[in-house]
Amino acid sequence: MTHPNQSILALYAGRDLDWFTRRRTERHLTHCGICREEVQAFASSRQGLTARSELPAIRWTRLAIEMKANIRLGLAAGECVRDERMAESFAPFALLSNARTLGACASVMAVVAAGLYLQRPAPVAPSEFGGGSAVLRATANGIELNQGGQTLSLLHVRSTDVTYSAGAQGSMRAGYVDSDTGNVTINNLYVQ
Amino acid sequence: MSSKFAILFVAGVVALFAQESPLDNSVKINLPPDSPLTLISENLGESHVSPRGSAVVLDLDVTLTLHNSSPNRVRGVTLLVAAQEVTPGGKASVSVPSLDVGPNLNFPVRINLRLLRPAQMRGGPLVQVNLDGVLFQDYSFYGPNRLDSRRTMTAWEMQAQRDRRYFKSILAAHGMDGLKQAMLESLNRQAERPRLDVQVSRGPTVASAAVGEHNARFAFLRFPGEPVEPVEGWAEVVGNEARNPRIDVHNLSSQQVRSVEIDWIVSDRQGKQYMAGSVPASGPEFNLKAGSTSRVLQDTALRLSRDGGAPLSIAGMTGFVGQVEFADGKVWIPNRESLASAQLLGVLEPSPEEQRLMDLYRKKGPKALADELGKF
User: Which of A48, B37, B110, B260 has its CA at a distance of 20 to 30 angstroms from the CA of residue B9?
Assistant: First the structure.
């Protein structure tokens, strides 16, 4: 039986998989206790993380009630001072204004939705190269080993003039002069 | 009203800081009790762990201060960095060659690492750092040598001596102006050296042949005095991918050879040459007795792109012997004249020592470089 890898299970636990992969993973989980346990572990650690990131001790319900009350108060005050005749004569503009407001709201919502979409933890698209096995590559500031969505990188952040070389036994090397220590440093990654 | 803003501001700051947490026992440095190096300090700098979706990112920027407690001068160190939970099939190392650390002196080694893994926490340190080897001035070696560090660091030290000898001879023959000229040539060569973006994948490739796949033959460069000669070799080539290089080599020397490294150059349709990598062979399965022939073989795929990301169409392949290690641990490398006459200096990356000397010249000028050369 082929088990989904750790990344797929982690993304499944976080409900971040696309529909097709989710269905396939669900089918596997119905008859695989090991993976079910993995998913439960991911889900519980995710809840722990979420709990750590939440804002402490804010009564959201009370805050929402207060905000609604403030809005109603503002609307009521507006009604008191509104000139009825002016409102009638500018009715078409009011309609236009409502349309503008709707448009503005829609734009804001679109921006927020796009932001949420970009922020969501997206699964790393598996490279066609390597057929799913580990791949070594040079990146903008280091060398990287990618295996099933998990990565190990050795970085050379503050150094320029970096030389890279690949070894056909499955290795990648980056050599540079470390700007802090002044020593030549050679980072190596190996895949077995 | 202002108190509400204050609450929201404080809550925001708390939430922001909850995103990142410092490292707690995430790194373990292991040096053997009889090691010639001892750990003086371990500075974790700005290392931190931060959540990213359902995953965790560990940014490790650690500077180790090591002490040479041996009576010999240290020339190089290799540390093995293992993050076994993250990459079960992979490992990393950080080497510092071109050192000149006397007895009872300290020196820094910096490890800058990032790893991304699922948030599910398990016990034990995330990263373990072990000593793989120390090379001394007299080419003696200490360490478990799991990464073949002895051969690699010996070759770097021999390259260092070769390149220092070259620049010293220039200084002796042509003075400071000649040294400046030689350094400028080195810097220009490195600036103009065609670079490749190489991706490496290990393991057997799919059996079915891709469209356009063919066996490409290596052309070989020969150097005078080389102890091993390449006889013939091939690799499967399709588009910008080269797979499974296999090269037959013949031992011309009277000694048993423990390992051979063939350097691999590819050329595009315009005839421009690029350094693709090296094809090493070592270990118990590689046995090259005096006068015998053996095969260097690797189950690997290399994907080659130009600097800008455009795929490089492989039109030709050239190989030459870059390193030979004999059974007694001695190492042979090509001399600088051979590399220059084969016009390889503009294709190969500089040795670590040449890189260090160029950096010294750039930052401190020719006088500092001449002083440095005078130390050896």
Answer: A48
- Mean pLDDT, rounded, for B117-144: 84
- Flag whether B6 is in a domain: no
β-bridge pairing B316-326 and B214-220? parallel
What ipTM goes with this model?
Answer: 0.88
> Could you tell me what percent of chain A has a pLDDT over 70?
67
Q: Does B119 touch chain A (CB under 8 A)?
A: yes
Nearest CA-CA distance, residue B306 and chain A, Å: 12
A56 has a chain B CB within 8 A of its CB: yes
CA distance B174 to chain A (A): 28
CB–CB of B28/B125 below 8 Å?
yes
Q: Over the stretch B26-61, which tens digit does the pLDDT of each residue have? A: 788 999 999 999 999 998 888 888 887 777 788 888
Same domain for B139 and B27, yes or no, is: yes
On chain B, the residues whose CB falls within 8 A of the CB of A151 are: 86, 114-116
A174 CB near a chain B CB, below 8 Å?
A: no
Cα-based angle B185, B187, B193 (whole degrees, multiple of 5)? 95
Q: Is B146 helix (H, G, I), strand (E, B) or coil?
A: coil
Residue B285 DSSP SS3: coil
CATH number of B97's domain = 2.60.40
Does the pLDDT value for residue B318 go beyond 60? yes
pTM for this model (two decimals): 0.72
For residue B260, the Cα-to-chain-centroid distance in whole angstroms is: 16
Say yes or no: B207 contacts chain A, CB-CB below 8 A.
no
